[in-house]
C-alpha cells in the first residue's frame, strides 16, 4: 500500500509499536526521507518501544500481562483453578486480579463451593443381592458329599443297631447268669445234702426275676446289683470256701468280659463320629463360610447327580458289609459269653 | 521378535472381579442415580439393572474398563428412565416439587443440591462424574460418549451456573 499524508500516521504508530513488517517499514522510512518535517524527534518518542514487551522487570511484566480483561476471563481462571488446570502464570494472573478487585474474592469463594462432595452415608442397601455365588470345584464337593453321606449312614445305622445289640447282649447275659445261678444253687444244695447242715439258705430264685440289665442310659455295660447280691449275699457255709472263691472269680471276670467289648464299641463310635462324621461337617461349614452360597451350573448338577448315583450304589454295598460286620460282632460277643460260662 | 511378544493379553471380568465391582462401586452408582432420579426405589432399580447388564456381558468386558462400563450402563438407564418419566409426568407436578424444595431450604449444601437439579442432564452427569468419582476429562468423555473439549465446556458451564445460583440464593438468604 502506498503511504500518503492521509495514512502515514497509522503506519508511524504501527512502526513505533513494532507491528510494522519489514517492507512497510522500509516504505515508511522512504516517505519520511522525502518529508523530513514529518519525522518526530528522538526525544519526542523516547520510551514507547521499551514499554511494550521486553525491558520491564519480569514480575511487573507478569502482573501487567496477568490482569484479566473481562469477567469471563476471571470465570475461566477461577474454574480452571478449581479444576487444577492453571499454570503458574495463570495462577498469578488470578491472584492479582482478586487482589485488585476485592469483590471478586467472594465470587471466587462461591466457585470453590461448586465442587460437589459425595455423601458417603448414602449406601446401596441391597449390595449382597448383587453378588454372584462362587462356583466350587466339582471334585471336592463330591468327595465331601460322599464322605458326609457315608458318615450319616453309619451314624444312623449304629444308632439304630446299637440299642438292639445291647439289648441282645443283655438278654444273653441275663440268660447265662440265670443258668449259672441255678448251677450254683444246685452245687450248694448238694453240699447241704452232703454235710447235712442245719444253716438256712436263701432262696435264690425269689429275687432273680427282678434282675434285668439296663443299657439304655449307661454306656458302660454293668450287671444289675441285684444279680450280684443274689450271688454274694447267699449265706455260704464257711467250709465251702471253694465255692465262694469261684463266685468271686465269676463276678470279677464277668465284669471284665462284659465291659471290654463295650469299650471297643465305644471306640468304634468315637472313630466314626469324631474323626469322620463331625470333621466332614466341620469342613463343609468352613467351605460354606469361605465360599458363600454354593451355586452350581447345570452341567455340574448333572455330574453331581451321576456321581451321587454311583455313590448310592457304593453306599448300598457298604451298608450290606456294615450289617454283616455288626452281626459278626454281635455273634462274637455272644460266643465269648457262651465260651466263658461254658468254661466255668 | 517372537509373535507372542506382540500379543497383548486382555483380562476380562471374572466372578471375583465382578464381585469386587459390586463391593467398590455399587454405592457410588446408587448415589449417582439418586442424584438424577431423586427417588430411592428408582435409584435401586437402576443399580440392580446396571449390574444385571454388566453380569450378562462380563465375559466381554475388559478388567480395566469395569468401572467405566458400569457408569456407562447406569447413565444410559438413567437417560431412558428420565425420558420415560418426562413423557408421563405432568410438568405442573415437577414445577411444584421444585418450588417446594427450593423455597424452604437455605442450607448451603441443600442450595447446591437444588442448583444441581437445575442443570441440564448432561452437565449434571459430567460434573457428578468429575466430583463424585474423580474421573478426568478423557474418562468422562469415554463414559458419556463426548469429546474431551466438550466435557471441559460442559463442566465450565455447569460450574458457572452453579456459582450463579449460589450467588443468587445466598443474596436472598
Task: Outline the fold blueprint.
The complex is a heterodimer of chains A (344) and B (173).
Chain A (H helix, E strand, L loop, with lengths): L7 H10 L4 H13 L13 H5 L5 H9 L4 H13 L4 H13 L2 H11 L13 H4 L7 H58 L9 H4 L16 H8 L8 H51 L6 H46 L1
Helix pairs in contact in A: 1-2, 4-6, 5-6, 9-12, 9-13, 12-13
Chain B lengths: L2 H4 L8 H23 L2 H17 L9 H23 L2 H14 L3 H10 L3 H11 L5 H8 L3 H25 L1
Helix pairs in contact in B: 2-3, 2-4, 3-4, 4-8, 6-9, 7-9, 8-9
What's the average pLDDT of chain B?
A: 81
H/I helix tally of chain B: 9
Structural class from helices and strands of chain A?
mainly alpha
How many structural domains can be distinguished in the coordinates of chain B? 2
The top level CATH class name of the largest domain in chain B: Mainly Alpha
- N-end to C-end Cα span of chain A: 149 Å
In the residues of chain A, how many domains can be counted?
3
Could you say what the CATH architecture of the largest domain in chain B is?
Orthogonal Bundle
Give helix and strand order of chain B, one letter per element, not per position: HHHHHHHHH
Give the DSSP E fraction of chain B (strand runs of 2 or more residues). under 5%
Portion in strands of chain A: under 5%
Apparent shape of chain A: rod-shaped
What is the radius of gyration of chain A?
57 Å
Amino acid at each position: 500500500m502506498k503511504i500518503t499524508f492521509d495514512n502515514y500516521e497509522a503506519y508511524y504508530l504501527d512502526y513505533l509499536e513494532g507491528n510494522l513488517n519489514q517492507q512497510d517499514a522500509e516504505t515508511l522510512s522512504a516517505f519520511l526521507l522525502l518529508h523530513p518535517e514529518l519525522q518526530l524527534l528522538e526525544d519526542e518518542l523516547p520510551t514507547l518501544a521499551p514499554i511494550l514487551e521486553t525491558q520491564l522487570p519480569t514480575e511487573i511484566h507478569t502482573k501487567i500481562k496477568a490482569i484479566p480483561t473481562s469477567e469471563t476471563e476471571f470465570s475461566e481462571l477461577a474454574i480452571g483453578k478449581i479444576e487444577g488446570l492453571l499454570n503458574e502464570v495463570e495462577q498469578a494472573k488470578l491472584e492479582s486480579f482478586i487482589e485488585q478487585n476485592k469483590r471478586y474474592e467472594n465470587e471466587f469463594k462461591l466457585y470453590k463451593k461448586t465442587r460437589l462432595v459425595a455423601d458417603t452415608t448414602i449406601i446401596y442397601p441391597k449390595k449382597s443381592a448383587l453378588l454372584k455365588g462362587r462356583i466350587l470345584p466339582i471334585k471336592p464337593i463330591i468327595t465331601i458329599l460322599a464322605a458326609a453321606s457315608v458318615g450319616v449312614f453309619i451314624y444312623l445305622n449304629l444308632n439304630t443297631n446299637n440299642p438292639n445289640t445291647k439289648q441282645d447282649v443283655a438278654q444273653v447275659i441275663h440268660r447265662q447268669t440265670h443258668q449259672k445261678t441255678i448251677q450254683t444253687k444246685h452245687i450248694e444244695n448238694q453240699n447241704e445234702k452232703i454235710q447235712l447242715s442245719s444253716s438256712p439258705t436263701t432262696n435264690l430264685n425269689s429275687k432273680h426275676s427282678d434282675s434285668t440289665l439296663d443299657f439304655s442310659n449307661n454306656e458302660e455295660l454293668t450287671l444289675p446289683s441285684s444279680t450280684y447280691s443274689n450271688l454274694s449275699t447267699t449265706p455260704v457255709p464257711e467250709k465251702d470256701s471253694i465255692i465262694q472263691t469261684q463266685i468271686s472269680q465269676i463276678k470279677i471276670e464277668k465284669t471284665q468280659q462284659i465291659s471290654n467289648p463295650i469299650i471297643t464299641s465305644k471306640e468304634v463310635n468315637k472313630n466314626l463320629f469324631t474323626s469322620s462324621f463331625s470333621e466332614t461337617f466341620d469342613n463343609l461349614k468352613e467351605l460354606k463360610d469361605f465360599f458363600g452360597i454354593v451355586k452350581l451350573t447345570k452341567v455340574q448338577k448333572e455330574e453331581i447327580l451321576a456321581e451321587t448315583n454311583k455313590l448310592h450304589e457304593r453306599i448300598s454295598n457298604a451298608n450290606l458289609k456294615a450289617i454283616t460286620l455288626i452281626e459278626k460282632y454281635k455273634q462274637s460277643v455272644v460266643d465269648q459269653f457262651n465260651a466263658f460260662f461254658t468254661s466255668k | 521378535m517372537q509373535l507372542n511378544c506382540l500379543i497383548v493379553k486382555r483380562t476380562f471380568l471374572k466372578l471375583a472381579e465382578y464381585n469386587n465391582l459390586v463391593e467398590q462401586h455399587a454405592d457410588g452408582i446408587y448415589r449417582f442415580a439418586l442424584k438424577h432420579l431423586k427417588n430411592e426405589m428408582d435409584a435401586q432399580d437402576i443399580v440392580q439393572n446396571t449390574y444385571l447388564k454388566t453380569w450378562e456381558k462380563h465375559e466381554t468386558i475388559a478388567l480395566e474398563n469395569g468401572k467405566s462400563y458400569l457408569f456407562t450402563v447406569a447413565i444410559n438407564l438413567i437417560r431412558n428412565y428420565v425420558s420415560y418419566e418426562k413423557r408421563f409426568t405432568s410438568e405442573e407436578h415437577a414445577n411444584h416439587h421444585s418450588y417446594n424444595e427450593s423455597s424452604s431450604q437455605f442450607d448451603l449444601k441443600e442450595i447446591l443440591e437444588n442448583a444441581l437439579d437445575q442443570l441440564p442432564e448432561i452437565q449434571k452427569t459430567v460434573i457428578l462424574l468429575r466430583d463424585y468419582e474423580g474421573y478426568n476429562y478423557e474418562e468422562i468423555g469415554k463414559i458419556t460418549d463426548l469429546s474431551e473439549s466438550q466435557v471441559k465446556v460442559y463442566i465450565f458451564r455447569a460450574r458457572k451456573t452453579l456459582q450463579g445460583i449460589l450467588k443468587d440464593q445466598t443474596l436472598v438468604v
